[in-house]
Amino acid sequence: MNIGKHLKRGLLVLSAALALQFYTKQEKYALVINGDDSIKYSINISQAYEAFFKNGFDKVYILDSKYENNFDKLLNANFEDFLVTNYPIYGTAKRKTLEEVINKLKNEVDKDALFFLYVTDHGNRIDEEIAGERIELSTITLYGEEDTTEEELFEILKPIKPKIGVYLFDQCYSGGFAVQFGHGNVIAIASAVAEKSSYSFDRNSVGYFFMKALAGDMVADSDENGRISIKEAFDYMMRRHTYSIDGDQKPFINSELDPSKVYIDE
Length: 266
What we know:
37% of the residues lie in helices and 21% in strands. It is of the alpha/beta class.
């Protein structure tokens, strides 16, 4: 029996298996939510879609107000609005559609996948009675003025169990969502604390600059390793977003993970 020959063959098989494992691409999924027609939100989504595309995301679900009569809206839009609405829209940002997408994603996003949630929308702060106790909750405003609280969204997203979650909330009072979600394997970014509004205009918002960095603006690469981490994208945004620079707005990251070691390009 030629032991050396069999050993060599075994080592080749093992090397091939290790190489396959090393080069296996991490599956990546994104969900974007916007319930408002304003062009600044379309610009934000367009920038985010560029980042997802460049980082090789497998699927991007976009729930946008423009899905309603989308063709007519684009025909009647001004030239700039037409140019920035260059992303595929899955459906309208309504609770029913959101739950439909989550039903799809729970069968697609596994324990080895990356899941990116981006909310660019309006938000409110409401007072509710839960179990006999009055508490304040942050909300996102879905299409048609349909509010969804931080606790309701948490329940809706429960079936999604990725290896890493990056949740970016860019709406007024978004801090409530970051506090609710930023635990375990989820990095949550909020554009404002739970009790404060979030300010933005065209190409000048927390979400816009954060996603611009992730789309590959290497100015954000502060450690010069050729990659943009979540922390580097956040710092890049903080140096550019007008209201954050002025101190009128206080974005923050809530996470048990180290955002300087998390990337979406893997």
